[in-house]
Amino acid sequence: MNSKFQLSAFVAGASVLFSGCTGGKEYSEKPNIVFILADDLGYGDLGCYGSSVIKTPNIDRLASEGVSFVQAYAGASVSSPSRSCFLTGLHAGHTRIRSNFAKAGGIEGHKGSNVIRRPNLLPQDSTIANVLSNNGYLTCLVNKWHVDGFDTTAHPLARGFQEFYGWLVPEPRSHNYYPAIRYRNREEYTIEENLNDRRKRHSTDIATEEAIDFIKREKDKPFFLFLSYNAPHSPLHFKDSLYRDADLPDNDKAYASLVTHLDEAVGQVLAAIANAGIEKNTIIIFASDNGGSTEARVEKLSQNGILRGWKGQLYEGGLRVPLIIKTGNKRNAGQQSHFPCYFPDLFSTLVDFTSSHTALQTDGISLLPEITSPNSLDPALRFLYWEQYSGRGISQAVRRGNWKLIKRNARAEYELYDLESDISEKNNLAEQYPDIVSSLSQHLKEAHVASEWWPVDDEIIY
Length: 462
Known about the structure:
Blueprint: E1 16-17, E2 32-38, H1 57-65, E3 67-69, E4 72-73, H2 79-88, E5 107-111, E6 114-118, H3 128-134, E7 138-144, E8 163-167, E9 181-184, E10 187-190, H4 203-218, E11 223-228, H5 250-275, E12 282-288, H6 316-319, E13 323-326, E14 336-337, E15 341-342, H7 343-353, E16 361-362, H8 368-372, E17 383-390, E18 393-400, E19 403-407, E20 414-418, H9 434-447
Parallel strand pairs: 2-11, 2-12, 3-14, 4-15, 7-8, 7-11
Antiparallel strand pairs: 1-16, 3-13, 5-6, 8-9, 9-10, 12-13, 17-18, 18-19, 19-20
């Protein structure tokens, strides 16, 4: 990776050297893994997470059959670094990709008329797909990759996946909800129905069809399917207006329609797993890559519930996401876990679930003990770390137990919140608890490893 690091368990959030499995055999030595990832779905957008407006019966049913994590976090508050954290098992202070755009490094290209630099995973960045393929799994990515930047060699098939169906950053015509171009492994093909902006085949449907086809073909082999939807990311190009009669502004109707369409797609995938006769040997994970976004411009919907902040920020609204994990035996179905966890943990959990062997060092811990016995792990021992970059430089945040410390830029004053009593992060307690600020600020310093792609212009004052 970017540099060597050595961190102690839990204090580092936790750094774990994997050489085998500690608990996966309770489930199956080679269970199938299906990871369904939404894009910009807010913490409060699902019925099972509190929405009273948007209908999500299939995901709600998944929650009733699995364990819902109510203090789960993305790897970052924007897409590319969050996915990088999951794929590499490293938090944002260690993983290759720290932001959607790089200040240096990466490759220069265009977004519309703007010249930008996008980072990408390098060949030396081992992914969970590398680990699982090395341990007898067939690995498949469907739809969104978004860790390739403008590097055409940073293809999913060059980073551990054996099959790929979806879109890539260097080809703008492959993006969004009605793509004219799509990829089948390395082959580029045309979607005739969507040419000339005809908008006939929606990407949610295309991705669902590709995922179901993969499940049907490969049901007799252990597989890892990463199904990474676009929805409900802007622009809000919905297929059908499912809320036309609702008392909502037009943008709210469009957003809600995208979420419910996504839910219908999840229901189709769940049905395909059941029809293939592999439900009892399949672990299903559902999450969002970051919090809800202001780009949706909704007015009445409460995308992030009572959480403060949005996508692109280190407040809870930008980071906290729904996370549901259902095992084949439906162990502890319908229960909630309050244990703080984040995307690097999913890497470790999949290693554990699949009894895989790897010598990779990660920043995550396996959630399998928490799935087996919800709320058995001690949250007071947990450290979680995030960083990101914007025009104002580096932002950092750390959570330990119920305390969360935020530093919005290199020279900003600290913000300290007690999430147990102040989940909305309204009361900054930094002045009242200087000892806690001092302790947590040390972790900000230790967790950050400098990256030449994101040079920090100002000295970080801890």
